[in-house]
Write a structure and sequence with these properties.
Blueprint (H helix, E strand, L loop, with lengths): L2 H7 L1 H13 L1 H15 L31 E5 L18 H6 L3 E7 L2 E10 L1 E3 L7 E3 L5 E8 L4
Antiparallel strand pairs: 1-2, 2-3, 3-6, 4-5
Length: 152
């Protein structure tokens, strides 16, 4: 066994690696960072989360304020996916999600995308679910992964 392997297998090596993983949380979110870190440990970790559903009757929701005229809201398609890269919202599974009838909503300021949000229909991706997806209750959607740019 090399000294490098010994160092990584020691408690101090595991702590050092875990601290590196924590710094990488921004890349794929906390769930992805935990999965990466757990895959390197000799023990298995279990993630347990409790979900709370909030019911809002659409009839009780006031109409939204209109966007300023320079902004436009639209339902994105596959051709729009490259535009979310500037928002750090580009996901490797985006095309798969669109094919599965999930929705990607975007807001443009002129030609520039300034905001995006996924709306998952029927099921939603989550690290806590056994196979990575949580079945949603009938008649609900899960808005997630909203991203916006900073004002310039």
């Amino acid at each position: 066994m090399t000294s490098e392997a010994t160092a990584l297998d020691s408690p101090a090596g595991v702590r050092a690696r875990a601290s590196i993983e924590v710094r990488e949380v921004g890349r794929g979110g906390l769930g992805e960072a935990v999965r990466r870190a757990a895959s390197r440990l000799p023990v298995r970790l279990v993630v347990r989360e409790r979900y709370h559903w909030y019911v809002i009757d659409a009839a009780d929701v006031p109409p939204p304020s209109p966007l300023p005229t320079k902004f436009s809201l639209f339902l994105a398609g596959p051709d729009d996916l490259p535009e979310v890269e500037g928002l750090d919202a580009s996901f490797e599974r985006a095309e798969e999600w669109l094919d599965a009838v999930h929705e990607l909503w975007m807001v443009r300021d002129g030609n520039r995308v300034v905001s995006s949000c996924w709306v998952f229909v029927g099921r939603a991706p989550t690290a806590a679910a056994r196979h990575g997806w949580l079945q949603l209750p009938p008649g609900t959607v899960n808005p997630e992964r909203a991203r916006s740019t900073r004002r310039t």
